[in-house]
Structures are given as structure tokens and as C-alpha cells.
Amino acid sequence: MSNPRLRPAAGTPGRYSYDGLDRILHEKARLGIMTCLLTRPQGLLFNELKHLCALTDGNLSRHLDVLREAGLIEIHKAFQARRPQTTVTLTPFGRQRFRDYLDELERVIRDAQTCPGADPRTQPAPTGTSWLPI
Amino acid sequence: MSNPRLRPAAGTPGRYSYDGLDRILHEKARLGIMTCLLTRPQGLLFNELKHLCALTDGNLSRHLDVLREAGLIEIHKAFQARRPQTTVTLTPFGRQRFRDYLDELERVIRDAQTCPGADPRTQPAPTGTSWLPI
Questions:
Q1: DSSP A123
Q2: CA distance A113 to A28
Q3: How far is CA B108 from CA A81, A94, A118, B114, in A?
Q4: Candidates B5, B35, B91, B100, partner chain A, best to mutate (most A CBs within 10 A)
Q5: Looking at the partner chain, which of B2, B17, B134 has a beta carbon nearest the beta carbon of A80?
Q6: Nearest to A24 among B48, B96, B134 (CB)
Q7: Do A41 and B120 make contact, defined as CB atoms within 8 angstroms?
Q8: Residues near B91 by beta carbon (within 8 Å), at least 6 away in sequence
Q9: What is the ipTM of this complex?
Q10: Residues B8-34: pLDDT tens digits?
Q11: Which of A28, A116, B105, B129 could staple A9 via S-S, CB 3.0–4.6 A?
Q12: For B47-78, what is each residue's pLDDT tens digit?
């Protein structure tokens, strides 16, 4: 390598592989569901969760299935005034796993703020750019 | 709803949808690549990036293609001592987009720490759990 400016200051192999971001929790909708549940230890009703995460019935059901199969949440079905009511809560295992995941997210943010030489997040923002959601 | 404990304190619809986590940047390997590049404004050589992110040649190439097609990175190919050398840098647009993405990640972490009633991240961790990567 001839250009020392291109050499990373602390170039540990795999330094940026973020293995703690497991696929089940890192999926955007499930990340929202888990955050929502983490902050409500008593659990949430299916419809509350659906509105808070802006998901359809079908999408929420599919994501809850994935989380339940991984042992991260529990689903409790009951009747309230003759109407079915589904309550979703985190399992202790899910709570611990999600905490570990959040620790890894915090590491990403810290890494992004640690620039060899200068902090890129303090550089002026470029102008004239726009972004169309994909 | 009959159980007030299940009602969210601030239940804005879509509060946890995290629309700012766009799919291109949220993918784990690309998140590592972008973090790595953000902290090295002069760019990185392909092989450095490969080692830092613990990716194979093929995987890194595929992810770089996705990022380049979205206008987030630039790839510069040159020869150094008769050997081909590929340098990857963020575009100003990519830098701004990734900053916005990181702001949304920080919002997830703040949300996870904001519990109606109690902070679940300060609760004791459950014991006897284990996690097998999936």
C-alpha cells in the first residue's frame, strides 16, 4: 500500500462486521416492534402495536410469528367482553437479546463518530442533494 | 380497551415505524461499509474495506454495486506499481444520507430508553438464557 492516508488507523480485521446485529432483530419492522415492546413491560394489544408500528394486520402477524419462533416474544390470546384480544409481550430472553442488539447499535453510532483525523459528523452538510425513498 | 396498563402513554400512529431506516443503508454489511467509509474521508482500498468488514471479494463487490447505483459511494480504479488498485469513497450525497440514517438509529436507541413508567434497560438482566446465532 503506497498511500498512508488510505491506511486505517486501527484496522482490526472484522472491526466493522457488527456480528451482534442479528437478522431477526435488525429487520426494520421487527426493530420497531421490539422497541415498542421493550418500553411497555406489560405488553401491548395487537391493534395498538399495529398502529404504533404502522403495519398491516398481515405484516404484523408475519413479523410476530418470526419473533415468537425465535423465543423473543409471547402471544397471549383471550376474550374481553366476548371479543378476542391478543396481547404481545417480550420474553426475558427477548429482552436480553434486544438489549445486546441495542448495545451493538450504539457501537455503530460511536464508530461513526470516531474519525481518524477529524469527526466527519461535524463537517458541513452538502447542499443541493435530495433523496427519494427506495 | 379495558386494561389501561396496556394503553401506550404517547401512542402516536407510526411512532415506531422508523421510516428513516432505508433498506439500502440498513442492511448489516452495508451499514459496516458505510460506517467504515464515513470515518475515512480519503477513502479506503477495496482490500482494506474487505478485511475491516470481514467480507469476501464477491460479497463486498455486490454491496458496493448497490451503494454505487444509489449514488452513495464512488469507486475509483487506478494502477499502482502496475497493480490494479480500487479506492472507495463516500459521495457528499452518501455522507448526508448516512448521517440522516444515523440520526434515525439514535432515535431508536433513545426510544428504547424511554419507558412509560420505568426504564427497562435498567432492570436486572435475566439469567440462564443463551443465544444461538441464526
A1: S
A2: 23
A3: 35, 17, 26, 10
A4: B35
A5: B2
A6: B134
A7: yes
A8: B71, B72, B73, B74
A9: 0.77
A10: 345 688 999 999 999 999 999 999 999
A11: A116
A12: 999 999 999 999 999 999 999 999 999 999 99
